[in-house]
Every structure is written in structure tokens, then in C-alpha cells.
Write a structure and sequence with these properties.
The protein has about 230 residues and is an all-alpha fold. Helix 5 runs antiparallel to helix 6 and helix 9 packs antiparallel against helix 11. The longest helix has 18 residues.
């Protein structure tokens, strides 16, 4: 009978394993499969972002809320750790293309704050200084608010407050002058505005207003303010 071919099955007739070969060879490990059936890729850390790009992003977020001065944006960049060199480079570019315009900012600020809050030039100058607007730029913007407009606004503020004011004329007078002073009006403007409004309110208020020497009182208040500034 012709020689039988060697059996290669794994059943009863499987050939015995070779000496030392008692286990199957290890299978290659496969990556974990996600929902799509593809092996999950190993995530690599994102490359560091360019500092100029980060600075521009910070500025644009700030400007999306409201207009900002150059000094305000520089402060925001410094708080986020942007270097002075990169900050200056980005802000210079924004200056060139008109994204930053401190002069336009100052004009808009003076107009809106005077119309909306009734602030006088002195108070507005303080606000612009705190926002880092250059002194000459602020002076130019404040020049658009003339003395006549300022006096008219003071009278309007007093007349509006008088509608709900309660108390003796002298107490009302002091409160209203103090209100105008806090809004930055000079003593002379504030005292005359309140005196004129009281004179038109009632006979009792008019009698009290008649006794007020606005010029003398304004001079006294002005001297007191100068003394206070000297102490500071």
C-alpha cells in the first residue's frame, strides 16, 4: 500500500508537539476599537500657540465688549502674561489700522457720559485719565463740551431733582449743590444752577435764594477745594 500522507489535523490524529513547544505563539495586540471600528489613535499634545496670536485673541475679546483705550488693552495683555515686546507689536499694528483710536474713544466717552450721566468736564477728565488717555488727547475731547452746554446740563439736573426734593430750602440747596459737585461741576456753576432753580420753585424757596450771594459762596468753595488739593 502506498505510504500515507502525514496528517496535519488538530484532532485525534494530530502530530505531537515538538519538545519545548507547549504554547501557541502570542497573537499581536490590537488597538482598542471605538464605535467606528477603527483603532483609537494616541493623542499627542497640541503644539504651543504663538504668543502674538494669543495677544490678538485677547484684544479682540476685550474690544467685543466695548471700545478700549490702548492702555486698557496693554493692561489686559500684561495680566495674561504677554511680554511687553509682543504687546507693543500687536497694539502698534492695531493703531495703524484704526482698531485702537484713543482720540475717537475720548470724544465718544465725553459725549455719552455727559448726555447719559450729566458729568461735567472735571469728572470726565478724571475718568479719561484713569483709562490711560493722554492728557492732550483728553483736553481736545473735553474742548467739545463748552461752558454753556455744561451750565444747561447742570440746570436740567437740578430741575429734575427738585421735582421730588423734600425738606427746607437750605437743606435742599446743600444736597443739590453737593450732587452737582460730585458730577464735577465747578462751585460757581453748581451754586448758580441751584439758586436759579429754587427761585422758580416757590415763594419760600425764592426768598431763600434771594439771600444767596452766589459769587461770594463760589469763591469760598473754590478756595476750600484748592486747600484740599494742596493737602492731598
Amino acid at each position: 500500500m502506498a505510504g500515507r500522507r502525514a496528517r496535519t489535523g488538530r484532532g485525534w490524529d494530530a502530530s505531537p508537539p515538538r519538545t519545548g513547544d507547549t504554547t501557541d505563539p502570542p497573537r499581536p495586540r490590537r488597538g482598542r476599537r471605538g464605535g467606528s471600528g477603527e483603532a483609537d489613535a494616541v493623542e499627542s499634545p497640541a503644539p504651543p500657540r504663538d504668543e502674538s496670536e494669543v495677544a490678538r485673541e485677547i484684544c479682540l475679546r476685550q474690544l467685543a465688549v466695548r471700545p478700549r483705550t490702548r492702555a486698557e488693552l496693554a493692561g489686559a495683555l500684561a495680566k495674561r502674561g504677554i511680554s511687553e515686546e509682543v504687546s507693543a507689536e500687536v497694539l502698534d499694528r492695531y493703531d495703524e489700522v484704526g482698531i485702537i483710536d484713543d482720540a475717537a474713544f475720548a470724544r465718544a466717552w465725553v459725549s455719552s457720559r455727559h448726555a447719559g450721566r450729566g458729568l461735567a468736564r472735571r469728572a470726565l477728565a478724571n475718568e479719561l485719565r484713569r483709562k490711560g488717555v493722554d492728557g492732550e488727547v483728553a483736553t481736545e475731547a473735553l474742548g467739545e463740551l463748552d461752558e454753556e452746554t455744561e451750565a444747561d446740563t447742570a440746570r436740567s439736573l437740578v430741575e429734575r431733582k427738585l421735582r421730588t426734593a423734600r425738606g427746607e430750602p437750605d437743606a435742599v440747596f446743600r444736597r443739590l449743590v453737593g450732587m452737582l459737585a460730585r458730577k464735577g461741576y465747578p462751585p460757581g456753576v453748581a451754586i448758580r444752577a441751584v439758586k436759579d432753580a429754587l427761585a422758580a420753585q416757590s415763594a419760600e424757596a425764592a426768598e431763600f435764594a434771594e439771600q444767596i450771594d452766589a459769587d461770594a459762596l463760589a469763591d469760598a468753595e473754590g478756595e476750600l477745594e484748592r486747600d484740599n488739593r494742596a493737602v492731598e
